[in-house]
Design brief:
The protein is an alpha/beta fold. The chain has eight helices and six strands. Strands 1-2-3 form a three-stranded mixed sheet. A three-stranded mixed sheet has the order 4-5-6. Helix 8 links the parallel strand 5 and strand 6. About 10% of the residues have low confidence.
């Protein structure tokens, strides 16, 4: 492990202990040493992603119409943001994207919000179970250098979205694996691709 990652791990641990309970630390403290050690993102980018999610969530909450009538999930990976969930109108769907694009350090936005009524709690629970199964299934992938913890899995209405910094062969293997999970209707790749050699 390089010195920069060791420093980041030490920094997160110390900061979380000294300042637990502060909003900023809730964001930073969620990045554990194990994640930093395995992740292909730069350590500072891991923090950026969590701050981006926090800022988008906060700004969406400031919009009364979105807060009351939409169900929006935000996932940032390497400063690329995926929006999933439901918005009752196309105008609200576009507004959520505008707010997201305006957040500092956001490089790209994948707006996968559907124009519909908000999903039922039972539907969200089902999606959570599918996500858990998909993450577990990735450990079955037998490919040199493949690390399942480098794949971000998001499920919305039984559609799975996969994010991460991966090689093309890793992406194909991940898609093939999670597509076999019971209940999955579609797998969408939201990957960024590396060269043939892993980082």
């Amino acid at each position: 492990m390089d010195k920069s990652k060791l420093f980041i791990i030490s920094f997160f641990t110390t900061t979380s202990i000294l300042l637990s309970g502060c909003a900023g630390v809730v964001v930073v403290g969620a990045t554990t040493g194990a994640v930093v050690a395995h992740d292909r993102r730069a350590p500072t980018t891991l923090v950026d992603d969590q701050v981006i999610e926090f800022r988008i969530r906060s700004r969406l909450a400031d919009e009364a119409t979105l807060r009351k009538h939409a169900n929006i999930s935000i996932t940032s990976y390497n400063n690329i943001v995926l929006l999933t969930g439901e918005a009752p109108t196309e105008e609200m769907r576009r507004r959520a994207e505008e707010i997201t694009r305006a957040v500092l350090k956001v490089r790209r936005v994948h707006n996968e919000l559907t124009v519909s009524t908000v999903s039922a709690p039972s539907s969200r629970l089902r999606d959570s179970l599918i996500t858990a199964k998909a993450k577990t299934s990735l450990f079955k992938v037998k490919k040199d250098g493949f690390d399942p913890t480098r794949i971000k899995v998001v499920t919305e209405n039984r559609s799975i979205f996969l994010m991460g910094l991966v090689r093309v062969d890793e992406a194909d293997a991940a898609v093939q694996q999670v597509s076999q999970v019971n209940g999955v209707t579609k797998v969408v790749k939201v990957f960024e691709y590396l060269a043939a050699a892993p980082l």
